[in-house]
Amino acid sequence: MKSNGNVVSFRRASNGVDQSEPDMTKLARLLAAYAPHDGSFELRIPGLHASRFSRAYTECFHAIRLPSLCIVAQGAKTTIVGQEVYEYDASRMIVFSVALPVASQITQASHSEPYLAFKLDLDPHKIAELVLKVYPHGLPPVQERRAVYVTPIDASVVDAATRLMTCLAQPGDAELLAPLVTDEILIRLLRSPIGVRVAQMGFAESSVHRVAKAISWRRPHPASR
């Protein structure tokens, strides 16, 4: 990987996922409906975003990434944080545990098969509340705390994300059911292999949160979502 000013180039990630998998196909179809053209869209449900991009980018776009869960239903993306490079596609989901500066590049997309992504902002206060239910006897010790985690896609999280998207079709569902489905997504993350690390987001005095407080804000480029 070579860095030259604001542009970082690297090898394109491969996507070995069978896109015929029913849950991911439905999620991709819903994302395409709510992201009708290239760009990132804030949806009616607070904290929920849908993104579509119809071509790969040869340069990286720099932005501040908020704490969030990202599921790529189609295509692939690479995100650089410091010296770490994270590649993810329909086989891997990514969690950002703090606000931090990133450089991102969409590495697989076309007009016939655009990059389609689901992004849900993560509320540390809500996570702290749910940690008490998921870990009633306290959190196991964590030796390493990181700002970014990439983990194999979880079918139960994809299923919940798909149901959250379907809530958009009815205003009543978006208002009454979406908060429940959002809680389900968080609970499933907390019960996943990275759950103990995600739980650390609920503790404002952790080292990664102290770092995040020092980051200045600026508007992200649309391709960063």
Q: Report the structural category.
A: alpha+beta
Distance between the termini: 22 Å
Radius of gyration: 17 Å
Mean pLDDT: 83
Main sheet properties: 6 strands, antiparallel
Count of discrete alpha- or pi-helical segments spanning 4 or more residues:
7
Which regions contain 5 or more consecutive residues with pLDDT less than 50?
Answer: 1-22, 204-219
Instruction: Note the overall shape.
Output: globular
What strand line-up does the widest sheet have? 3-4-11-6-9-12
Helix content: 25-40%
User: Can you write the helix and strand succession as a string?
Assistant: EEHEEEEEEEEEHEHHHHH
Strand element count: 12
Instruction: Describe the oligomeric state of these chains in a short phrase.
Output: single chain
* Residue fraction in strands: 25-35%
Describe the 3D structure.
This protein has 225 residues and is an alpha+beta fold. 30% of the residues lie in helices and 29% in strands. The chain has 7 helices and 12 strands. The protein has helices at residues 22-34, 124-134, 155-166, 171-176, 178-190, 195-199, 207-213, and strands at residues 2-4, 7-9, 39-42, 48-53, 61-65, 68-74, 76-81, 84-89, 92-96, 100-108, 115-121, 148-152. The strands form 3 sheets. A 6-stranded antiparallel β-sheet has the order 3-4-11-6-9-12. A 4-stranded antiparallel β-sheet has the order 5-10-7-8, with no helix packed on it. Strands 1-2 form a two-stranded antiparallel sheet. Helix 3 runs antiparallel to helix 5 (178-190). The radius of gyration is 17 Å and the shape is globular. The two termini are 22 Å apart. Residues 1-22 and 204-219 have low confidence and may be disordered.
